[in-house]
Amino acid sequence: MADLKVSVVSADHEVWSGLAKQIVARTTEGEIGILPGHEPLLAILAAGEVRVTTLEGAVVKANAEDGFLSVEHDTVTIVARNAALV
User: Cross-referenced CDD domains, in alphabetical order (predicted)?
Assistant: First the structure.
């Protein structure tokens, strides 16, 4: 199975980046799960928690609001006006 290359970015700094096997985020359309091979996607984030499951199985949590989530070729970029690790 392929890996996801993930970057969580706030307006003024990178909050977290690395390889992951799964991401769960809250969008304006509802909660979404991203796995390797996901179709390209651009979604507006709703205020809430983003959960990134690393390759080792650890879960990295970040609060994010006012931004978007982009998925393309197993690269996930989460850009938010406000984002911080929990």
Answer: F1-ATPase_delta
